[in-house]
């Protein structure tokens, strides 16, 4: 049975080349932190951001 109650907030990690994101990961805070660490090791000279992911709006819910 699915539990549609609490959904943990997601975080978005992005790897930037100048002003262009070249990789994006969205997932739970713990997974995002792990991904961020890996990307920092792999791309030491690039900017890595880890921030709360924007809320996703379900357009089907508005039609109900």
What does this structure look like?
With 64 residues, the protein is of the alpha+beta class. It has a domain at 10-53. Helix content is 30%, strand content 36%. The chain contains two helices and three strands; from the N terminus they run ββαβα. A three-stranded antiparallel β-sheet has the order 2-1-3, covered by helices on one side. The longest helix is centred in the middle third of the chain and has 14 residues, at 29-42. The mean pLDDT is 86.
- Biggest sheet, open or closed, and with what strands and sense? 3 strands, antiparallel
Please tell me how large the radius of gyration is. Answer: 15 Å
SSE string: EEHEH
Structural class: alpha+beta
Q: How many beta-strand segments?
A: 3
What general form does the structure show? flat
Largest sheet, spatial ordering of strands: 2-1-3
Q: Round the mean pLDDT to the nearest integer and report it.
A: 86
Strand residue percentage:
35-45%
CA distance, first residue to last residue: 23 Å
The number of helices is 2
The low-confidence parts are none
Measured as a percent range, the helix fraction is: 25-40%
């Amino acid at each position: 049975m699915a539990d549609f109650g609490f959904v943990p907030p997601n975080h978005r990690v992005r790897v930037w080349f100048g002003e262009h994101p070249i990789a994006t990961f969205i997932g739970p805070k713990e997974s995002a932190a792990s991904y961020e660490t890996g990307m920092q090791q792999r791309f030491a000279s690039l900017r890595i951001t880890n921030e709360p992911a924007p809320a996703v709006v379900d357009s089907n819910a508005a039609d109900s």
